[in-house]
């Protein structure tokens, strides 16, 4: 179970106007602004739930994922994931979670994918049987057979993303955080990834938190959405309830953003 | 422990795949070593009495330095590690059940050892075959060879510990360029990479020999070439062990703080 209570996080950002003169001035007198990335964020997610975490750019989605993954310490607030505070007990916490950052890569660039997986096997101390079983299942579901012997640098974005997702699931995590997992994928890969996530959730009762700008992802995967804007939770509920008639999901969400002025 | 060893193994096997870079490195080391030896010989012939080391010892120093450049070169830090700290890809490493410090340490170690493994043999072989006084001489006695090997392992560990400390500090400065340039230039100067420490003026040498930089390539190369012997050599090896402990403790502490306080860059 995930329980976040009144989590706050602010960043100090150096700002200046455009131009050379301004750049020189900022050498002597740098102005900082404090940006509130998260402002008393609270929510609870039960085991086995799938939740869409949506909001416009800069709303605080990634900050939330980082806090839940234990790699960012909030300024205030409480957070318990399966009874642990992620940033205080990072190493035990991360054993149970899998994370996919859609914009980053965890695969070693110059070696075949399977080498990266072998390393993960040792890092997570996965037993041989579990590793073989999980790898076989993931290979089949994500269609990786042809890719495993290829170095990451020679894969296309979509192929690589499938490998990334498999890498995050090798240790069979109970919780899966997906930060824009379908970014840049073609239609076929998107459908494959979505179907795979649904299956994980159904068969392994994996709790999934998904952030995305692709509303079709949300529509296909989750019923419950948490809407965040300017660091605050604005709405937490069932998407179907706020949807009026036959409008498509992008319009529904755009309407929501307008209604909350975000 | 096994996970860090696996990290070492993967980085090592990755290092072995860069063959073209290794050949280019070997060629550079031949030319560079040859030029340095020509320079030292010119000084030696001018005034042999002023030379602080034996000429054979100096030549051996240069060839060993060139053969094992990858183990000791201060500037050999991984751009990839700096990049991942700068753009936030390090986030993935932090989502793993392992400590960041030993992971980076194992990685840096593997990078150096794999590079050296590809480069050292051709250079050593070539240097052994060269006639006196241009070639690499065998060390006198098994005792000295053993002490040399011990000092060499310590020297590599100190070099790696220093590099890992730089990685750790980069978590706070974000941009690595300034620190990296400053520290690596200082290291090259103080660790005997440009000129062996015996060639410095006495007062300066006394100070330089206590610094952590002297605990890197300086000790093993001078033990091999016979410049450091007996109690002096043992004291130098003990000082290496001392600096290794200090640098590892400092790196570990900085990294522990970074893990708690740091912000992963980028969305």
Overview of the molecule:
- The complex is a heterodimer of chains A (262) and B (267).
- Chain A is an alpha/beta fold.
- Chain A has a single domain (46-259), classed as Rossmann fold.
- Chain A is built from ten helices and nine strands.
- A six-stranded mixed sheet of chain A has the order 5-6-7-3-8-9, sandwiched between helices. Chain A has a three-stranded antiparallel sheet with strand order 2-1-4.
- In chain A, a hairpin with a 2-residue loop joins strand 8 (224-229) and strand 9.
- Chain A is globular and about 55 Å long.
- The mean pLDDT of chain A is 88.
- By secondary structure, chain B is an all-alpha fold.
- Chain B has one domain (13-261).
- Chain B is globular and about 60 Å long.
- The model of chain B has no long low-confidence stretch (mean pLDDT 90).
- The interface between A and B is medium-sized, with 34 and 27 residues.
Fill in the keyword field for this structure.
heterodimer, A: 262 residues, alpha/beta, Rossmann fold, 3-stranded antiparallel β-sheet, 39% helix, B: 267 residues, mainly alpha, 0% strand, globular
Question: Could you write a compact summary of the structure shown?
Answer:
Chain A is of the alpha/beta class.
Major beta sheet, strand line-up of chain A: 5-6-7-3-8-9
Characterize the main sheet of chain A: 6 strands, mixed
Query: What amount of the residues of chain B lies in strands?
Result: under 5%
- N- to C-terminal separation of chain B? 32 Å
Level of helix content of chain A?
25-40%
Task: Describe the SSE topology.
The complex is a heterodimer of chains A (262) and B (267).
Chain A: E1 2-15, H1 20-28, E2 31-45, E3 50-54, H2 61-69, E4 76-81, H3 90-94, E5 97-101, H4 113-123, H5 128-142, H6 157-169, E6 175-179, H7 187-204, E7 207-211, H8 215-221, E8 224-229, E9 232-238, H9 239-242, H10 249-259
Parallel strand pairs in A: 3-7, 3-8, 5-6, 6-7
Antiparallel strand pairs in A: 1-2, 1-4, 8-9
Helix pairs in contact in A: 5-6
Chain B: H1 2-15, H2 19-46, H3 55-67, H4 69-72, H5 79-87, H6 90-94, H7 100-129, H8 142-173, H9 177-190, H10 202-208, H11 218-224, H12 230-261
């Amino acid at each position: 179970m995930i329980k976040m209570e009144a989590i706050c996080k602010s960043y100090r950002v150096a700002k200046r106007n455009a131009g050379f003169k301004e750049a020189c001035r900022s050498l002597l007198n740098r102005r900082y602004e404090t940006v509130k990335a998260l402002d008393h964020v609270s929510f609870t997610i039960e085991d086995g739930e799938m939740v869409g975490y949506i909001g416009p750019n800069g709303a605080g989605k990634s900050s939330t994922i980082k806090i839940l993954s234990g790699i960012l310490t909030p300024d205030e607030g409480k957070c318990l994931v399966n009874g642990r505070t992620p940033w205080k007990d990072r190493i035990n916490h991360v054993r149970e979670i899998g994370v996919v950052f859609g914009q980053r890569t965890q695969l070693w660039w110059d070696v075949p994918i399977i080498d990266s997986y072998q390393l993960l096997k040792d890092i997570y101390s996965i037993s041989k049987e579990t590793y073989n079983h999980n790898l076989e299942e993931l290979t089949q579901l994500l269609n990786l057979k042809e890719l495993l012997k290829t170095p990451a640098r020679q894969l296309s974005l979509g192929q690589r993303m499938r490998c990334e997702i498999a890498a995050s699931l090798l240790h069979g995590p109970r919780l899966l955080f997906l930060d824009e997992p379908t970014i840049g994928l073609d239609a076929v890969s998107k459908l494959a990834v979505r179907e795979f996530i649904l299956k994980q959730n159904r068969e392994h009762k994996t709790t999934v938190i998904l952030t995305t700008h692709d509303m079709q992802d949300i529509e296909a995967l989750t019923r419950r959405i948490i809407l965040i804007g300017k660091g605050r939770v604005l709405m937490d509920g069932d998407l179907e309830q706020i949807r009026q008639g036959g409008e498509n999901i992008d319009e529904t969400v755009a309407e929501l953003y307008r209604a909350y002025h975000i | 422990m096994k996970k860090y060893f696996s990290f070492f193994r993967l980085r090592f096997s990755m290092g072995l795949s860069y063959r073209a870079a290794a050949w280019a490195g070997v060629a550079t080391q031949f030319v560079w070593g040859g030029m340095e030896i020509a320079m030292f010989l010119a000084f030696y012939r001018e005034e042999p009495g002023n030379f602080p080391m034996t000429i054979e010892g100096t030549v051996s120093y240069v060839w060993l330095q060139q053969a094992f450049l990858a183990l000791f070169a201060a500037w050999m830090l991984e751009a990839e590690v700096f990049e991942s700290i700068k753009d936030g890809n390090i986030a993935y490493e932090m989502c793993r059940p392992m400590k960041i410090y030993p992971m980076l340490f194992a990685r840096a170690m593997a990078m150096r050892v794999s590079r050296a493994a590809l480069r050292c043999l051709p250079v050593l072989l070539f240097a052994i075959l060269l006639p006196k006084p241009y070639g690499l001489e065998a060390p006198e006695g098994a005792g000295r060879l053993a002490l040399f090997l011990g000092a060499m392992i310590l020297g590599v560990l100190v070099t790696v510990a220093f590099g890992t400390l730089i990685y750790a500090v980069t978590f706070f400065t974000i941009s690595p360029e300034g620190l990296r340039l400053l520290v690596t230039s200082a290291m090259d100067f103080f660790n005997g990479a440009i000129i062996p420490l015996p060639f410095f003026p006495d007062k300066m040498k006394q100070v330089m020999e206590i610094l952590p930089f002297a605990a890197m390539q300086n000790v093993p190369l001078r033990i091999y070439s016979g410049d450091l012997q007996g109690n002096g050599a043992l004291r130098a090896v003990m000082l290496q062990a001392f600096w290794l402990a200090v640098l590892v403790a400092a790196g570990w502490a900085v990294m522990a703080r970074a893990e708690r306080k740091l912000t992963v860059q980028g969305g």
